[in-house]
Amino acid sequence: MSLRDAFRSPATSLDDQMESYATSRVPHAQRWPAFAILLILTGNVTAMFWFTLGGQIGFLVGWPGMLLPIGYLVVVSTILGALIMRIASKEGLSLVLLTRGLGFGAKGSAVASFVYGINYIFYFIFEGSIVSHALSQYFGIGQGSAVASVIFALVGAAALFFAWRGMHSMNILQRFGMPIFIGLFIVGMLMLADGHALVGPGQWESLSPGDPTVMAQAFSLANGQIVFQALLATDYGRFSRPQIGYRGTAAIMFGELVMIAVVMILGSLLAFTLYPTLSQENPQLWATDPGFVFALVMGFLGVVFTIITQIRINVMNLYSGSLAFANTWDAFAKRPIRRTHWMVGLLVLGILLYPVNVLQYTDTFLAVTGIMTNTWIFILLADYFVCRRLLRFASTDRIEYEDHEVRQWNPCGMIAMAVAVLVGALGLFGVYPVYYASFAAMLIGPIIHVTLTAATRGRFYAVAPVPVAA
To answer: Does residue 357 contact residue 414 with C-beta atoms inside 8 Å?
Structure first.
């Protein structure tokens, strides 16, 4: 295979590009080389979110303590992503379709996919807000003004254009977008060094040195992302060739996550360098707001930088969100709604919710997503590797997903998910420290699921037999 072919997608019809096999298996003829998958995932690496998360973790625990939660994120996400992506590539199914056969049932999977889709609404607004914050800093446009909402809508529409044809248009965008991102970021770092005294890692100290819980809080932030990165990778990993093994999927995940770790550390560099110079109220929030930071450091070039970066990552948010909602609808309605229509809906919803500055709720959101998405995925992995492969309650040769193959509801997965989320919610409401909530939920969920599946001998996997009339 030539180098060019390693990054090239197979030819397919325009209709298949648009639908992107949202509710069906990806045919073997439409599988992509591993390098082409990794190229698309580099769009996630350049998300402004990572600058924010790196700065927040740095402010919590300082250096070198921040390497512990970042290392946890890299190692655990690589392992989880390798396992889930391998299953998805073998089956050619999106994570939501896999959920149908892995312990939830057809309608049960729709509940999980709806929760999954909500994540992308948050990230879509998060990244779009960063653009308006950059414009606010440079042009003096109010962050909650009507003009800012219009700008958010225009930039979101540009992302919609590139996400319309799914994987194929994203492949083109990410191929040329990464060099632009790297070039502009290097310029930004040079301008930062020229205009500010750089604060190196030796001076990165916790802003709450007397708080013994800061490391637990930092791990909670990281835990909110360990599964989500695997989820995102799986949406694209289902297109990888079936013969790819766990080493191949682990290599894709590790390559992406190492780059993410570098961006997070650079996010701390930006935050600690600018923090002493800010006079605004709540300088921690401003120092971890990439839109404000890059516009402050780079001027108009910083605005261009945030716009380009936001379009690249929001293409992925629109694409994955549309997959989730298309499957949610498909499970309950007889008449499907095209994936592209769901992207338009996500854009409209993002515009309506934009005036809420979601950056200030990042820690709460990561706690919630850690509870819900982590629990969901740990249940799926427990179902596949324990209930199916170890206990042999169902086949591992082929995961069923069509309505005539699976039950509408599998109570084992649903009960396990409900109990685990309830336990996590108790942490959110202060019954115990919230930074333990996602860990408690993701451990309890799979234990309950395996227990219930073993107790019922796996009878909820297959469709219930239709009684024969006497």
So the answer is: no
Instruction: Please indicate, yes or no, if residue 158 is contained in any of the structural domains.
Output: yes
Percent over 90 (pLDDT), the chain: 29
Between 10 and 157, where is the model more confident?
Answer: 157
The pLDDT of residue 9? 47
Q: What's the one-letter identity of residue 396?
A: T
Instruction: Report if residue 15 sits inside a domain.
Output: no
Counting every residue written for the chain, the total comes to 470
Total tally of structural domains belonging to the chain:
1
Task: Give the C-alpha distances (Å, rounded to integers) separating 421 from 95, 121, 324, 369, 428.
Answer: 19, 20, 20, 10, 10
Distance CA 446, CA 383 (A): 8
Contact 48, 306 (CB under 8 A): yes
Q: Answer whether residue 46 is part of any domain.
A: yes
The three-point CA angle 210-214-216 to 5° equals 140
CATH code of the domain in which 267 resides: 1.10.4160.10
Give the C-alpha distances (Å, rounded to integers) separating 298 from 193, 290, 302, 346, 411. 11, 11, 5, 31, 54
Of residues 148 and 202, the one with the higher pLDDT is 202
Q: Which amino acid is at 339?
A: R
Residue 469, both tokens: 């009339």
Number of neighbours of residue 178 by Cβ within 10 angstroms: 17
Which of 128, 55, 113, 158 lies closest to 330, judged by CA? Answer: 113
Between CA 460 and CA 193 the distance in angstroms is 61
The interaxial angle of helices 246-274 and 49-61, nearest 10 deg, is 70
Contact (CB, 8 A) for 269 and 142: no
Looking at residue 427, its amino acid is G
Confidence at residue 13, expressed as pLDDT on a 0 to 100 scale: 40
The answer, yes or no, to whether residue 148 has pLDDT greater than 90, is: no
Round to whole Å and give the CA distance between 289 and 127: 10
Q: How many CA atoms lie within 13 A of 194 on its CB side?
A: 9
Find the domain containing 80 and state its range.
32-455
In a domain, 417, yes or no: yes
